Prior knowledge:
Blueprint: H1 2-5, E1 7-8, E2 11-12, H2 19-49, H3 58-87, H4 89-107, H5 113-141, H6 147-167, H7 172-178, H8 183-208, H9 223-236, H10 238-271, H11 276-305, H12 310-326, H13 340-364, H14 370-398, H15 403-425
Antiparallel strand pairs: 1-2
Helix pairs in contact: 2-4, 2-5, 2-6, 2-8, 2-10, 2-11, 3-4, 3-5, 3-14, 4-5, 4-8, 6-11, 7-8, 7-11, 9-10, 9-14, 10-11, 10-13, 10-14, 10-15, 11-13, 12-13, 12-15, 14-15
Amino acid sequence: MTDKANRFGPFWLQPGVTAGNMLTLFAGAYSTIGLLTFIALSTPYVLTVYLQVPQGEQGAVSGYLHTFQEVIAIAVFGPLGVLADRIGRRAVYVGGLVLMGIAYALYSYATSLPELYVYRFVYAVGIAAGTGMLGTIGPDYTEERSRGIAVAFTGILNALGVITVTIGLGKLPHFFVERGASQEAAGHDAHFVVAGLCFAFALLLAVGLKGGTVVARTERLPVRELFRSGLAEAQANPRIALSYVCAFIARSDLVLLGTYSVLWGTTAAAAQGMDAAQSLAEGRKVFATASFAALLWLFVIGFVLDRVNRVTGIIVCMTIACAGYLGTMLIDDPLSTTAIPLLVLLGIGQISAFAGAQTLISKEAAQANRGSVIGMFNMFGAVGILVSTFVGGILFDSVGPHAPFVFVGVLTLGLIAAAVVCRIKAPGPLSDRGVATAVALH
């Protein structure tokens, strides 16, 4: 009877967690990742309409902004975790969405690049709080026996949120312009709508999430200990070392897709004579095409990864990813129908890389060393984002819109070679059923 009282559908809940708490968490999973995506959609518009940054410089500026954002997020993740232990996950999560809303409300009012960096700072703290708590509350709410399916369902909601924002909110400026607003007013109105959604979901989370603090405080390794222990585990287990390199690639291409596919589509539309609102409406289609393909492919690659050796899975996933990245060299116009198959390949390549990396680390990080291994995995991913956004932005302007993706594609070739060596020398179990749910951590 006790188990039945603590069950919500297929999810077994921790004592004191209600069905309403879980539904609120799912609403947060749907909204948080989707709403943070809007920054990639709106930045080209802000750079063009309000700051008059030349098209030939927007790639580098976008890269610098995202690099700055990632540095801030990395710096505040630890303190936010400590704060969550003190005042509760709910308060930090709600505060994160409020900060995101404030940043969006101000973003289009920037009158200079330094001012834009200030608003991006507020946004970075907000997404660090929001995404950090989203990943923390799930394990807090569910028992171990249903944690995998909860993670998978949350990942699907993340992807649906991204697609909803890309398809729906990305065309808001064009919607307002069609109804008589100026380019400037349309941009302000669009950002106010997104800010309002952030505030609305913050209120929902404040009402629906479970309050209080957890009984057991989260263990937080000092950076020096994390490095020492994480690298020692990689030295002892080649598959852990491989997973770190996978994180560098998989996390970076996730950001590249969101940042530079939108900018590519937007600049292509502008080159065809469209105004800023039309350009954004068209540019979002590039990201939407790749994202929708990634969502559908998630189920396919999850089925595959459930049935093969996990290092073999990395080889398969990274080969698909490499084909997607390098295939961008064949795209002349990302808005043309002939580009759709290559954009689909780019999307399934991105999700394949992420799924393969997540599956490998989820199985290799044993309970005894999970903190240090996952910490190093995330750190390699953060470094990957920093490198790819900084270098990618420069390449976007100096070489071409496809160059950031080709850069990661070339790096992926080296990873595939390393994975082949690992498969020969340290393959691990030849079969590993039951890991598919881990791939939905997206």
